[in-house]
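FORM 7B - TANDEM STRUCTURE REPORT

SECTION 1: FIRST PROTEIN
SEQUENCE AND C-ALPHA CELLS:
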Amino acid sequence: MDYQPSVELLEATHRFPGPFMFKIIGRSEDQFVARVLSAVRTLLGDENEPAFSVRKTANGTHTCVTVEPEVPSASMVVEIYTQLRGIDGVMMLF
C-alpha cells in the first residue's frame, strides 16, 4: 500500500518551506531512478537534482529511491505524491 498524507496533517507536523522525505519503491528497469528524480524536479521547477539515495534489493529486481527535496508547501507534497504514483513501475510510496 502507498501512503499519502493530508495537507492538514502535513501542516501540523512539518515546517514549510523545508525538506521532505519521499521513499519510492519500484521495479529496477527503464531508468526508474531517473524518472523519479525528473518528476520531482519538474514539479518543483528545479534544474538541480534533489538530494537522493538509491538501494537495490539483493537480487536487483527492485529499487528504493529516497528523495529529500526542499518543498515549499504541504500542497506541493501532495502534488508530488500524486505525480510519483503515476510513474510506471512504482510499487510503493512512503
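SECTION 2: SECOND PROTEIN
SEQUENCE AND C-ALPHA CELLS:
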Amino acid sequence: MSDPFIKPFTKAEMDAMRSATRDEEGLKRRFWEKLKRVAGKIPFAEDLLAAFYCATDAKTPSRVKLILLGAIAYFVFPMDAVSDFLPLLGFADDAAVLAAAITQVAGSITEDHRLKARETLGQLTPEQP
C-alpha cells in the first residue's frame, strides 16, 4: 500500500500551498500573537500547538504541512465563519477545522510535538491555584 502523503501534488494543490505559505514568517508571527492572547481561553490550545510544531518540523511531509498550515491559517486570520469575539461559539469553527485537519494527519503529529506543545503552553498560561 502506498503512502498517500508521498504522491505528487496537483497544480491546484501547488497553487494552494504557494498561497498559504507565501508569507510563512508572517503567518508564524500572527500565530504566536493570537495564541498568546487566547491560549488560556481555548480548550484546543495544546492540539493547535502540536499541529504548529508538526507543520514547522522539517521531517514532516509536505502534504501534511499543507493541511496543518491551512488549519493554522484559518485560526490566525480574522475573517472566518464565526467571529472569535462571540462568547463560547467564537472559536468553535476554528476547533472544528483543526480537528478535521488533525484527523487527516494524526499519525504525523508525534509525541515530541505534543510534549513541546505542553511545555510551551505551560509557559504561555499562568498556573491556576
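SECTION 3: OBSERVATIONS ON SECOND PROTEIN
Residues 34 and 76 are 7 Å apart (CA to CA).
Helices lie at 11-21, 24-38, 45-55, 62-76, 92-105, 111-124.

SECTION 4: SIGNATURE
Preparer initials: ____
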